[in-house]
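Researcher: Good morning. I'm working through a list of sequences from a screen, and I'd like to move beyond sequence-only analysis. For each chain I'm collecting a predicted structure so we can compare shapes side by side. This is the next one on the list. No need for commentary yet; just the structure.
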Amino acid sequence: MERKKIARVSLVVSLVFMGVLFLQWPCTGYAKENEKEKPERLVVMAVEYPGVVVPSGEDVSMDIIFYNKGRSNESVDVWIADKPKGWETKIKTYKFTVSGVSVPSDEDKRLTFEAKPEKGVKPGDYKFRIEAQTPDGRFKMAKTIMVKVKKEAATKEAKGVKLTTSYPVLRGPSDAKFEFSVEVESELDKEAVFDLVAQGPEDWTINFKPSYEDKYISSLRLKEKESKTVAMEVKPSPLAKAEEYPIIMRVSTRDAKAEAKLTVVVTGTYKLEAGTPTGLLSLDARQGTPANMSVYVKNTGTATNHDIKFLTFKPENWKVEFKPEKIAALEPGDLKQIEVSITPYEEALVGDYSVAVEIQGEKASKPIEFRVSVRASTAWGWIGIGIIILVVIGLTGLFRWVGRR
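Model: Good morning. Structure tokens for this chain:
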């Protein structure tokens, strides 16, 4: 009996083991067959939303997806082949604007298509065409995105979120950073994520960050009736002229939106550059005789420099004159040439002297230092020559007189 029981158990275990092998064999075989059925190369492109409807003035952003269904890794070039007038477009990652993407086998990659309407874009239908292809031209793809811009009702007002700032206007030079502190208060009865968007002049850098933190953010999560303070950091273009610039901050979610109008007043930077056309800052002079040198003064700042004067630090009894004596105004980028006349003292000793000139503008100054080498007067040279001639004549006469005797 014991032997029969053992035999039965062994038979059951063998049958179970064989059944497991039988079940695994078709799956493994199917996977291998499925892998063999994949083409060597196959890549396709899709857009997240082929058709969208946005309010007037709203930006468009969506994913472009590349699927690699082949066994080979692929590189794909992508570009915007057609876009309507009045729109700024680009294809980018989270950080860079791109013109191509690498897609490994059996994976997908996403890029972001962005379109921003310029001022004056009217409601209507706008068509964008995106094209892509592999470098060898084997696969060529194209997708169309239709954007319908609708006009918002004039009576519709922002609600659900409130923006408050104590200092809506900041003033400073163009090389400074401006930081607005804005309190974002949710009036919703639920938690929500608010997108943060800023609109400013071209070539300006605008970023959002939490208060007292250095990291940059693009959205803010607020609980029911919660408020948080956000810092908006604004860096003007180095070439920004002295004037007022509006900055618009927009906060929005599906159920709420608001905007704050802020202002940056750029006062401009005050910088002066000065030198000589040849780059040399040394000259020769003689006692009591003027020596002339040309000097240029250039406004390298972004604000106009007014009432530019010239101050000198010179040896005692020397004269330093400027033509013209001052510059009434110098616009950004402008250059003026000044003639400098330096006259050493009549009894100055032969040697090298230092003459410092400080060019003082409205809010900027630039020093220049000249090395003046004083040479002996030519009059003394002629006197010396005359003395030598007289000595020679005298000696000649003396020799003749002695010779006669």
